[in-house]
Write the structure tokens for this entry.
Amino acid sequence: MKVTRMMWYAGTILTTLAMLAGSVTLAAQQLARPTHVRSAGAPPDNLKAFRGVARKLNTTPEALQSSFERARLTNPQLSRGNFIAANVLADNLGARRPNVTTAALLSGLQNGSSIGQTLQSLGLSKAEAKEARRAADRRIRDGAQRVKDEDRRERARDGERKQREHEESGHTR
């Protein structure tokens, strides 16, 4: 009876230790795994969302996405739209107002202020902030439209190429 009880205790202890080792290993693997911040509704490797505005800002979509992911680490509530708006506003206003930077705008958003409130805290009047936001929105829409137009032309060229290949393969038979 005593040996049976000791075997039961030993089995329980060994099972508990094995479960504990497994959970520690799993936790260590999760910590070692790189974390990816997802763009709003887009997979992390989807650069299409940054193509139009990246060209307007004289940068690459990869650099812009990387910058967005870093900004999301400090402010998980940051949306892609606000990030892009902050970059475009800083680009538009930076020459005339050196205190309007992407970092300053992102900091204001992180503190819970809106883009307009942040612009006002950086010295713009309410009307100037509203007009700056409208100009940034127009620039963002223009970049997005150019990307759509380029994609449409590329699909048309691909369709024409496939049609020619199909016709050529039919004539060689």
